[in-house]
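Chapter review: from sequence to fold.
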Amino acid sequence: MRTVAVVGASLAGLYAARALRAQGYDGRLVIIGDEIHRPYDRPPLSKEFLTGAMAEDQLALSDAEEESELDAEWLLGVRAQGLDTRGRTIRLDSGRTVSADGVVIATGATPRRLPGTTGTAGSAHLRGVHTLRTLDDARALRAELTTGQPVQVVVVGGGFIGSEVASSCVALGHHVTVVEAAPLPLLPQLGDAMATICAALHADHGVELVTGTGVTALRGTDTVTGVLLDDGRLLPADVVVVGIGAVPGTRWLKGSALALRDGVLCDDGGVTTLPQVVAVGDVARVGSSRAEHWTNATEQPAAAVRNLLAGRTVETARPLPYFWSDQYGVRIQFAGRRLPCCTVRITEGSTDERSFLAVYEREGVTVGTLALNRPRPFMRLRRELARGCRTPAAAAAAAAAAAAAAAV
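The token string follows.
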């Protein structure tokens, strides 16, 4: 290939560029990003960056030396608007087109907006209403939260982003209410018992958690003043943060020959319906699922670009699902796959102390694990799950080995 274009200049795009060079690709490399910023780390945006504990320059994922070694042509601050797979060109909103023999799609995802409020007067365009995905989003939110005066914050959505923002707002001294439409935050990911424990973290730190109701409208003229709920309650608000998930960045691919359904459809190697196009990260629907996890964005690209350079799928990558979240001084970690039929049990620690390790089991086999402030045993179990060795016999052997080691 003479030219490879990576569309998306965030984590997955950077890892794809690194993998291309590491695998010997020495042709022209073009990296296209709709933000003006070089690749940066997103997880701190809702935590350390928001509270001021981390400076902006600490978010950088690469430095000048590495970027020199990548020898890439960076096109930043321009948005891809179309992909002509027949002509193998990418159309940009600047009017320019980029011709490429191979394309890596890494356009991530964009925050969902509140249904029924976007674009109406006095709603999504109100000052004080935020989503949090990009560095610019975080800058704007931080500016409102660090004026030195406590404000009333309403967080819509009790998922990871919403919960982390709530935690950061508490640390900054603000009054916080979290609104979650489901009966509990994180219910699909963790199940009822563990989601109940995680939800209690909000109450532990004085955050009001309102569940089982959605948002009807935002109130205010120029600036938001309140959040009207489905059940008729009106919550006063100086700042509203909407964290209700994200949609894959595929709008620019409509009309192309690629198959799209909640992401770019790929095989287990990240290869789309066209062998000269692969997808990685949040935008890729690999097999039957799409995961917005940091580990996916870092582990998929190596296989995807190998397949791109080979012109067919020669390698697959289905990382064990893993995510973490830091809330109120508690590190929450989950790995594996929780199924509705799973049972869950605590294997060490105490839920009262907010420090424990739990396992999810199906027919006696561990298929997932959750930890609160138990990083070492969690990582050990995560490695075992990744190796696929967490059968009852293996679990018993591991427990015996751990007991023997502890007795020495």
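Two observations follow directly from the output. The first helix runs from residue 11 to 22. The CA atoms of residues 157 and 243 lie 5 Å apart.
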